[in-house]
Amino acid sequence: MRKSIVLICMFSFISLGMVSSAWAWGKPRAKRVDRNQDGIVDKKEHEMEQALKKMNQAKVDQPWEAKLDKNKNGVVEPKEVKKASLFGRVKVNCPLEQKYDANEDGWLGPLEQRQLLQDKCEIIKTRGNAVVDSELEKKYDTNGDWSIDAQEAEALKADLRKL
């Protein structure tokens, strides 16, 4: 008796899921998505819309995006973003990082990180060392003395060459 109730419940949930997903595919969404204008967005039309959304989101329309677009195809691809950023997005945690947050979104993007590290390299060139002010710079302080000296700066310079 229990097995039959469980089976009936499972069958009901599965069939309900199939009906609701079929209803979602058959539901009219937008006129521009429905290419054949039959009133139903089929799987192929849905996939085309997703691809178009992805392309529109990645188009280069900002100056900082143009710098990331290494192959100059007008689209910032995921591999270009990954190559441009060693650390991903870094949350702004201190006043120094806040100075480099050009778009004031609370995160340091790849170009903002690069500028911060380039300026830190210049300080090290002129003074011989620089105080570690942010989480981003802690990676390069290998001896833990809260200072990046010329020897430790070699790793920083190598990472900047990768960008």
Structural class, please? mainly alpha
Give the overall average pLDDT: 75
SSE succession: HHHHEHEHEHEH
Return residue spans where pLDDT drops below 50 for at least 5 consecutive residues. 18-29
Strand content: 5-15%
What is the share of helical residues?
55-70%
**How does the major sheet shape up?**
2 strands, antiparallel
The total of beta strands comes to: 4
Instruction: Supply Rg.
Output: 26 Å
Shape: elongated
Give an overview of the whole structure:
The strands form two sheets. A two-stranded antiparallel ribbon has the order 1-2. It has a domain at 77-163. The protein is mainly alpha-helical. The chain has helices spanning 2-26, 43-58, 63-68, 78-84, 95-100, 110-127, 135-138, 150-162, and strands at 90-91, 107-108, 129-131, 147-149. Helices cover 58% and strands 6% of the residues. Residues 18-29 have low confidence and may be disordered.
A few lines on this structure:
The protein has 163 residues and is mainly alpha-helical. The protein has helices at residues 2-26, 43-58, 63-68, 78-84, 95-100, 110-127, 135-138, 150-162; strands at 90-91, 107-108, 129-131, 147-149.
